[in-house]
Amino acid sequence: MSNKILFVVSKDFLNSHIGVRRVIKFYFQEIIKLGFQADWAIADDNKIIKISFRGKTFEEIYAESFCEEREDVIITADKLHEKHVYTSWVHQETKDFYDKKYVIDDLETYYRVILTAPWAVSERFPIVQNSIGIVYDIIPNLISLGKLKFVGASDPLIKFAFLHKVGFEYYLNNCVAISHISRHTMADFQMMRKYSKSSSRDYAVIPFSFSLVSRPTGNLKDNQEGPYEILCVNFFDARKNFLKGVEALLNLKKSFSFSVSFVGGPRMELSEIFYNLKRFSAAGIDFRWHVNSTDRVLEEQYKSADVLFFPSIYEGLGLPILEAQSFGKPCVTSSGGACGEINFFPEISGDADSIVELTKALERCLINLSKYKDSNFFEERAKKIFSEYSSVSQLLS
């Protein structure tokens, strides 16, 4: 049996979606633990081209990537009236990180070829019989359910949905196995594959190695007046339930003293973001928006926060929830999708469509904060949840 695994990645995978980068990093680390060697490639029309990271290892290039080196721009209430903050950080250059080597003709020499995203597969992508496809979330299903809506004919979501469709059809027709980042995502995918004749096997592999990074710190007293520190990751996105999340936080201010740290860039109109930040300021809510944060900055925010607020409408997984919990921090989340599946404390979740439920979940968490920061609870519940998933070893077998 060959001991080589080939990772097929999108051309900008280190410059784009942070969550996808982390999933790829997880799979790389797991296959190395299992004794495999890793090669890397990109798809170019009907060819698979091997790439190298310019004399560096994957770990080195990952650490030096655009997403790790960029400046952490912070927007606070006193900067909302400065015109330059609207544009000074929007245009950031990406950086090249690989060299093309040669077309790979001997794909059968690899034990498995891991297709790291459906959009990494083109319509003319060659048939690879020993391939595994990774599914993050079910964009076509979300559109059909009305959870995602197009805004005009030029909406980039149209192209994104089409790329998912192409990739998913390839997975079903050619892959020996399909790996889903949560059981909920797998169930959604199986709805889509119901009428296919695919023989591929489905696995739910949670792309996260859970261990309690640090023991809970911060405000440990129940019914404390505060101020508490609430963390919101990738909040400025309509799909993350931005508007109802804003209202829940404004409601919470009537009873609790807190500040908010936002981490992650905008995926919606800036005017709407700034309008609501001004509402926060008018309500007396202190906030800091880390627009272009690195992993290091995000880690610092996890450490200092009392709670993560993640009211997303739909998640394939909800990686920030797992990350925050690994720092011993409770998470107030929406109850649907994968969010409810991986929240160690489902009693502090609420219907994504209900501002009242989300507000009550936040209140319940802060009132009983010492209970939710008990490390024994985290370790026990993590063990139970993770036992319900397959391993990378099982996926490869």
Report on the architecture of this protein.
- With 397 residues, this protein is an alpha/beta fold.
- 36% of the residues lie in helices and 18% in strands.
- The protein has 15 helices and 15 strands.
- The protein has helices at 18-33, 58-63, 66-69, 139-144, 156-174, 183-192, 242-252, 270-282, 295-304, 319-326, 337-342, 355-367, 369-372, 375-386, 392-396; strands spanning 4-9, 37-44, 47-52, 74-76, 99-103, 112-115, 131-135, 177-180, 201-204, 228-233, 258-263, 286-290, 307-310, 331-334, 349-350.
- Strands 5-3-2-1-6-7-8-9 form an 8-stranded mixed sheet. A 7-stranded mixed sheet has the order 4-12-11-10-13-14-15, sandwiched between helices.
- α8 links the parallel β11 and β12.
- The longest helix has 19 residues, at 156-174.
- The N and C termini lie close together (11 Å).
Question: Strands, helices and their partners?
Answer:
Elements: E1 4-9, H1 18-33, E2 37-44, E3 47-52, H2 58-63, H3 66-69, E4 74-76, E5 99-103, E6 112-115, E7 131-135, H4 139-144, H5 156-174, E8 177-180, H6 183-192, E9 201-204, E10 228-233, H7 242-252, E11 258-263, H8 270-282, E12 286-290, H9 295-304, E13 307-310, H10 319-326, E14 331-334, H11 337-342, E15 349-350, H12 355-367, H13 369-372, H14 375-386, H15 392-396
Helix pairs in contact: 7-12
What's the short version?
The chain is 36% helix and 18% strand. It has 397 residues and is an alpha/beta fold.
